[in-house]
């Protein structure tokens, strides 16, 4: 659904917001406050306690409940905005659309909305309202279609989810209808229309998807670990990495209405997602935000601030990197690349994140001429409390190819000979541990200790020449950093630590507070562990379903095949004295989750049991290695 793109530079934007530059004389001592800018950012001159709180229902362009009555869904939208926007001040909007206001809750502290007797929100999850409303923004909190107080049925990233969010942006720009509790029309006369969507995980995906419709008025998105291709994220190179019927389970999880209400919609999801064959079809095309039927990256006209944890298991790193390369070249952008799992930087690097996001929104929504785009556009985390900046991502690199040797080393020259292993399910720790010990379920090859540090930035690729003794096998490749070091521990998942972070005691407060909404959150820091090795990145695939073959079909036992594929992206430094390891193996038990349809979270795929014989002469891994040093931060 391509639309003509009209792009306007911020220098040419004429905002109807009233701006006051610090140092300018006030009109009078009793005049209402206006937006104030000092040191390149907006200042907290508006009262959070006195802010206007209201709610409306925006009419979506869809009837998502499957009952065939043609009645279009109404989307619940909760709003908080400066009191002065009720008397002429027009303000931009920061918008969060999420399915999680009911279950499981939003953010690391899994917060939920609370309401007063009039149905207006007294507690907004997260900190965006506390911080940005006093600085002259409205915060708009959207219950995704079919969740919390919105009508309809959630579509697990499908068209209804996306078009519901788009309808809210349209309403903020005078192109859609909304109603109050009495059914009377409501117009958003208090806003400039310039909207920024922000969110983590599902929420980040919705921002990317709405932006990909080309909707006018959406000026920027902040996509934090949001997926961009449902098919790739749940079927990595043909391997089913989420349990069967995951879409229906997700829709049921976030919808607390009686189960029968959306049962028919969920059943259709089960049928259309086609877990039986794993084929790409219209269902998955609808959930492709790169070049799908609803959303296309090339139609994005909003600026993009993206955050990706390279050890994220929920939303894999290629969801960021493959979408990014499809964005129009003139889209303004900024990126943070971390070594964490599935989390957002508010919990990991709070002060820097709040300051950067503040400048970003001021620049993109207010037109403030600060230096956020004159700084290096990319922040990269290379280790605990170690960040560098650079102009873009990936960093400038050259491709370096490493080849396994018959003596177990990893070098640059072609080799001869073969190696073999059995495809059984193993965790990555079991695959990579004690590489010198024989293991019938993997092959391990290591370089000599590195003379100099070596940094990988981008997407490695693996190429294997192999034979199977069965028609199918799962293939796995690990890049491993061997060497004792203290690293981010992204594997621990407990009450006090998860995804690479741990609670460190106390709280810090962001923005202004009320008795109901204090804007204070637990403090967290890097969760580290000292270990002898670290799995840096991986590549997994179902050999018989991979696109490098001429056709998707069972392999002929005993026949030689050359299979080449991309591994997951990474940005990582191997320190001097460490050794780079290449591990060839079978079913990756950390990713092959619940393929039997079991929703318990157990790992139940045993592997195919196939014997994989690898021809070392035709086997290699190619790494994009950085050619210049980044700027320390």
Fold and architecture overview:
This protein has eleven helices and 34 strands. Helix 2 crosses helix 3 and helix 5 packs antiparallel against helix 6 (263-273). The chain is an alpha+beta fold and 633 residues long. The strands form eight sheets. It has a twelve-stranded mixed β-sheet with strand order 10-4-5-9-6-11-12-15-16-17-18-34, with helices on both faces. Strands 19, 20, 21, 24, 30 and 33 form a six-stranded antiparallel β-sheet that branches. Helices cover 15% and strands 33% of the residues.
SS field, number of helical segments? 11
Biggest β-sheet: count, sense, barrel? 12 strands, mixed
Q: For the residues shown, what is the average pLDDT? A: 90
Q: Helix coverage percent of residues? A: 10-25%
Radius of gyration: 26 Å
The strands making up the biggest β-sheet line up spatially as 10-4-5-9-6-11-12-15-16-17-18-34
Overall geometric form: globular
User: Oligomerization state of this entry?
Assistant: single chain
- Name the structural class: alpha+beta
Distance between the termini: 42 Å
Number of strands: 34
Beta-strand percentage range: 25-35%
- List the uncertain runs: 1-29, 594-604
